[in-house]
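JOB MANIFEST
job_type = single_chain_structure
chain_count = 1
residues = 282
[input]
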Amino acid sequence: MSHTVYRMYFHLPNEQSVVFREDNIEHVLDRAGEKDTMLTAWFKLNREDNYAKSLLYCEIPYSYVFNELAREWRPRQRGSVYTRLHHIHPRNRELYNLRLLLLNVRGPESFEDLRTVNGTLYSSFTEAAIALNLIDNDRQWNECIEEALSTETPYRVRFLFANICMHCHPNNPSALTLWNSYQERMSDDFVTFNGDTIDIAVQKSLQHIYSIFRQNGRIHSEFDLPELNPNVPDYRIRNNDIVMDQEMSLEEHNQKAQTMRSTFNEEQKVLISLNSLTKYID
């Protein structure tokens, strides 16, 4: 007899999928909270069935079948299954850590039970996963940024911070916690060279970091970082109206080159011409 692959659906609180027709959306939304999902029906099963309470979520289908019509788990009479919880990217932090908890916690009776470890109710699934040692504490990112701030310019540290956010998925501390801890020191160049207030400097630092995100196809909301103040001037413009070279577009570089060329003396113009000629000869 072949085995059936049983896909186990899960979701964050009040974020279950809802199917509806365009003409009955309000009715469906009103009733969505009244219907159990595969996950919330499991919570109910654990309240009533001691054997089910001894199982992990992914083990339930070996002994029970989810009845779609009644929206409840019932004892399995026949058949064998393989179970599967679909993959979640670590970028989706809370859902990813909910999945980790479902793979490791037996018999919870609610979402709150899943977030409770040794009698302590944590405010997020991420915190609960850390308390259970399912994910690492990311203190190394504090140490990494701290060390960089002692040797690198704030400009370079902002690049480092952006890359930690994009590629290292910091959880504890989160990207927001890291930002709150180091935002003033990562913004010091705007204070020193522009004479900006610290509030303006911090906003310009965020602008710079978000531009790095955009260049990599990412957005700041993925990391729960603050929204920008639209009234703060463009971070690339210094007080003397010179745009930071590292952030200039090709067109801006060309415009700046033309402006600078007009200020060259005769010897500089000859040198530029010789360099251009050498390039073509090579």
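[summary]
Residues 115 and 123 are 7 Å apart (CA to CA).
Residues 277-282 have pLDDT under 50 and may be disordered.
exit_status = 0
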